Amino acid sequence: MTYPLELQQLRVFYRTRDGEVAALRNVSLSINAGEIVGLVGESGSGKSTLGLAVMRLLKPSAARVTGSVHVGGQDLYSLTDDALRLTRWRHIAMVFQSSMNALNPVLSVESHFRDTFLAHDPTMRKSAIQTKTAELLELVRLNPAVAHNYPHELSGGMRQRVVIALALALNPSVLILDEPTTALDVVVQRAILDQIRHIQQQRRLAVLFITHDFMLVSSLADRIAVLYAGELMEVTAEVTGDTALHHPYTKGLMRAAPRLLGTRVTIESIPGEPPDMRTLPPGCPFYDRCSQRLPRCQKTPLPPRTGETFIRCHLVDDSITVHHDIGGDPS
Ligand SMILES: Nc1ncnc2c1ncn2[C@@H]1O[C@H](COP(=O)(O)OP(=O)(O)OP(=O)(O)O)[C@@H](O)[C@H]1O
Ligand SMILES: [Mg+2]
């Protein structure tokens, strides 16, 4: 089966003055057409690094990338620069973190679209560009007249919609959104998320939605991938009340997400800090903060896992074994 997006054993090492630092380790993840996968994790866990590595946008002088990224069955890292230029934006596009503030202030909205179209098809006519621009603005629920505005004349929510429309300009089948609504108020955020959901279903897009907001992603995504210290700890199809089924870190994120109990909002933070990526412990990277750790979690590396859903945790492995023993499962 060919996935629109498939990552296998993806690793990223940033080159620093003190040597290489692993920012992403052994990430394997596939996304189906018409599916939203949420990628959650604390600040610095490697979420943006993953997005940039998937787009092959990390410069070889800044980072070493190993493993593979397949887009529609095509190995992105084996493409020539010219072939890569064609694939990027046409097959896979990304809305970058804080990109609504990265629109060029001296260019009108229309000029941003014109530059995008002409970069991929220099022969495209002015009338076709205008028609496509109006269609894309309508797609994200903006008035096509916005084309004549400059970025500073638009609200943050409108700029974010423009950036999303630009990413969709060449009709990609895979879209990566890096914190697309974080800087916006909740009402605008909700409206944009509804819109993303609508477009994604209409176009059967495979979406990787990056956020630190666990509540937001659990209401939006079909599956949630939980990143900790550059490693996927769990990929879960649904966030169930039965928390025994989840990784202790995922449970911590659930408890840390604000929720209403009566009239009070309660938040339980996860004690401690993420580990220093330069001196990672040999076993589970969550060991120091885990309230359910076992002695062997300190030294024994986490088992590699692949598939649509999985958990990488010694404790959960044990409880599954126990469960099978009790149930007399012959496997
Ligand atoms: N160019 C770089 N050179 C060296 N280290 C880097 C570079 N870019 C990021 N890092 C490091 O890689 C790790 C992951 O960073 P990344 O930006 O991917 O995290 P993130 O999960 O997106 O965080 P946030 O939620 O704050 O956006 C961090 O420890 C960061 O300091
Ligand atoms: Mg980031």
From TrEMBL:
<dbReference type="InterPro" id="IPR027417">
    <property type="entry name" value="P-loop_NTPase"/>
</dbReference>
<dbReference type="Pfam" id="PF00005">
    <property type="entry name" value="ABC_tran"/>
</dbReference>
<keyword id="KW-0472">Membrane</keyword>
<comment type="similarity">
    <text>Belongs to the ABC transporter superfamily.</text>
</comment>
<keyword id="KW-0813">Transport</keyword>
<dbReference type="InterPro" id="IPR050388">
    <property type="entry name" value="ABC_Ni/Peptide_Import"/>
</dbReference>
<keyword id="KW-0533">Nickel</keyword>
<keyword id="KW-0378">Hydrolase</keyword>
<dbReference type="GO" id="GO:0015833">
    <property type="term" value="P:peptide transport"/>
</dbReference>
<keyword id="KW-0547">Nucleotide-binding</keyword>
<keyword id="KW-0406">Ion transport</keyword>
<feature type="domain" description="ABC transporter">
    <location>
        <begin position="7"/>
        <end position="254"/>
    </location>
</feature>
<dbReference type="InterPro" id="IPR017871">
    <property type="entry name" value="ABC_transporter-like_CS"/>
</dbReference>
<comment type="subunit">
    <text>The complex is composed of two ATP-binding proteins (NikD and NikE), two transmembrane proteins (NikB and NikC) and a solute-binding protein (NikA).</text>
</comment>
<protein>
    <recommendedName>
        <fullName>Nickel import system ATP-binding protein NikD</fullName>
        <ecNumber>7.2.2.11</ecNumber>
    </recommendedName>
</protein>
<dbReference type="GO" id="GO:0005524">
    <property type="term" value="F:ATP binding"/>
</dbReference>
<dbReference type="InterPro" id="IPR003593">
    <property type="entry name" value="AAA+_ATPase"/>
</dbReference>
<dbReference type="GO" id="GO:0015413">
    <property type="term" value="F:ABC-type nickel transporter activity"/>
</dbReference>
<dbReference type="Pfam" id="PF08352">
    <property type="entry name" value="oligo_HPY"/>
</dbReference>
<dbReference type="InterPro" id="IPR003439">
    <property type="entry name" value="ABC_transporter-like_ATP-bd"/>
</dbReference>
<keyword id="KW-0921">Nickel transport</keyword>
<keyword id="KW-1278">Translocase</keyword>
<dbReference type="InterPro" id="IPR013563">
    <property type="entry name" value="Oligopep_ABC_C"/>
</dbReference>
<keyword id="KW-1003">Cell membrane</keyword>
<dbReference type="GO" id="GO:0016887">
    <property type="term" value="F:ATP hydrolysis activity"/>
</dbReference>
<dbReference type="GO" id="GO:0005886">
    <property type="term" value="C:plasma membrane"/>
</dbReference>
<keyword id="KW-0067">ATP-binding</keyword>
